[in-house]
Amino acid sequence: MCGKSFTESLSLKTHEALCCGKKPFECKMCGNSFTESRSLKMHELLHCREKPFDCDICGKSFKLYTSLISHGTVHTGEKYFHCEVCGKSFSEIKSLKIHEKIHDGEKQYYCEICGKSFLRKYHLKSHISTHTGERPYRCEVCGKSFLRNSHLKRHRTTHTGEKPFN
């Protein structure tokens, strides 16, 4: 400890968080700790079932107003979140965070057969089927099998005559 003293408990806790790396604000529901009281308050909303902020366009509800604002970009197509490394833009912060792992070199999923690495588990799973020849998605009409579900969905239109992209 640095020895500083304060007249208010909150000031001491805030100082300890900044100076000493302490996380004195603890969630009574799950035990997670935070350096600032406002971070704890935001976190506590996650435990609340109430979602008071509704999207006027699709009706989806959110716990936080900022989440509603972020969600709005899904409808407008606006992309407020930009990668500082390559400049690519995203409509949601979570998409940017996933993208940034590409630049960090974080590839968590490795193919044990050839050593190739992937950012996402489903990409690895899809890749492994190139080694095994597995085609798990089978057309119930004609029996033809596909590597990916999206390929099966596209194939089904040959039986129905559906043209979803007019």
UniProtKB/TrEMBL annotation:
<dbReference type="GO" id="GO:0006357">
    <property type="term" value="P:regulation of transcription by RNA polymerase II"/>
</dbReference>
<feature type="domain" description="C2H2-type">
    <location>
        <begin position="81"/>
        <end position="108"/>
    </location>
</feature>
<dbReference type="GO" id="GO:0003700">
    <property type="term" value="F:DNA-binding transcription factor activity"/>
</dbReference>
<dbReference type="GO" id="GO:0000978">
    <property type="term" value="F:RNA polymerase II cis-regulatory region sequence-specific DNA binding"/>
</dbReference>
<keyword id="KW-0677">Repeat</keyword>
<dbReference type="GO" id="GO:0008270">
    <property type="term" value="F:zinc ion binding"/>
</dbReference>
<dbReference type="Pfam" id="PF13894">
    <property type="entry name" value="zf-C2H2_4"/>
</dbReference>
<feature type="domain" description="C2H2-type">
    <location>
        <begin position="53"/>
        <end position="80"/>
    </location>
</feature>
<keyword id="KW-0863">Zinc-finger</keyword>
<feature type="domain" description="C2H2-type">
    <location>
        <begin position="25"/>
        <end position="52"/>
    </location>
</feature>
<dbReference type="Pfam" id="PF00096">
    <property type="entry name" value="zf-C2H2"/>
</dbReference>
<dbReference type="Pfam" id="PF13912">
    <property type="entry name" value="zf-C2H2_6"/>
</dbReference>
<dbReference type="InterPro" id="IPR013087">
    <property type="entry name" value="Znf_C2H2_type"/>
</dbReference>
<keyword id="KW-0862">Zinc</keyword>
<keyword id="KW-0479">Metal-binding</keyword>
<feature type="domain" description="C2H2-type">
    <location>
        <begin position="137"/>
        <end position="164"/>
    </location>
</feature>
<keyword id="KW-0539">Nucleus</keyword>
<feature type="domain" description="C2H2-type">
    <location>
        <begin position="1"/>
        <end position="24"/>
    </location>
</feature>
<feature type="domain" description="C2H2-type">
    <location>
        <begin position="109"/>
        <end position="136"/>
    </location>
</feature>
<keyword id="KW-0238">DNA-binding</keyword>
<protein>
    <submittedName>
        <fullName>---NA</fullName>
    </submittedName>
</protein>
<dbReference type="GO" id="GO:0005634">
    <property type="term" value="C:nucleus"/>
</dbReference>
<dbReference type="InterPro" id="IPR036236">
    <property type="entry name" value="Znf_C2H2_sf"/>
</dbReference>
